[in-house]
Specification:
Elements (H helix, E strand, L loop, with lengths): L13 H12 L5 H11 L3 H14 L6 H6 L1 H7 L3 H15 L1 H14 L5 E2 H12 L3 H17 L2 E5 L2 E4 L8 H15 L19
Antiparallel strand pairs: 1-3, 2-3
Helix pairs in contact: 2-3, 6-7, 6-9, 6-10, 7-8, 7-9
Length: 205
């Protein structure tokens, strides 16, 4: 069986992604500065290099780069609000790494029918897509903490996840960029009405 490529094995603090996005929006993207930010978070040259590759892929080489360029003013305004900023960063992460997209979609699938989901349940589902190996588990525990940091989900107990019902999205561009990330991963140009009910969008409600 041919499994999908994972390509992510490192959690990136959202503050670092925010610095990268903000500098990109202001035409001052500086890889050396981002590297310095990562050095404050991580130890080890190899780990830092891996982290920089992920940041560059999410921001500089984003599949949504055209959308970002065309909506700079909206995004600049939206990222002033922490919650909207975090959602935008997660949408960019998901469009760059299908593993992150699939993980959030699976969380949405289970949390749309139950209040809590066990991490083992998510891992089992991801293993059927990406293989039941250590790399899948590492990737899962790279992206889920980012979802928690962003406020999409909470972890009431170790290994259990729940939708954050208190989150409020204020900016219209957040909905737009989530839709763009969905289209990017699905390789479609238009979202059909039934697709708006996809579990991926659960966390925008």
């Amino acid at each position: 069986m041919q499994y999908k490529s994972i390509d992510i094995n490192q959690r990136i603090p959202l503050d670092v992604l925010y610095v990268a996005l903000d500098s990109f929006l202001n035409d001052s993207y500086n890889e050396a500065y981002i590297l310095e930010q990562l050095k404050l978070e991580f130890k080890g040259e190899n780990r830092i290099k891996k982290s920089l590759r992920i940041v560059n892929k999410v921001i500089l080489k984003s599949p949504l780069i055209e959308f970002i360029e065309n909506h700079k003013a909206e995004i600049k305004q939206a990222i002033k609000k922490k919650q909207d900023r975090n959602y935008i960063l997660i949408a960019l992460l998901n469009s760059s790494f299908s593993f992150a997209f699939d993980t959030l979609q699976l969380l949405g699938k289970f949390l749309s029918v139950q209040d809590l989901v066990n991490g083992e349940t998510i891992k089992k589902s991801l293993s059927s897509i990406y293989g039941g190996n250590r790399a899948t588990e590492i990737a899962m525990y790279s992206v889920i903490p980012m979802f928690i940091e962003a406020g999409l989900i909470i972890r009431p107990k170790q290994g259990l996840y729940q939708k954050n019902e208190e989150v409020i999205v204020n900016s219209e561009v957040v909905y737009k960029i989530f839709s763009e990330s969905f289209k990017s991963i699905k390789s479609i140009s238009v979202i059909q009405e039934y697709q708006l009910r996809d579990p991926y969008f659960l966390f925008l409600n």
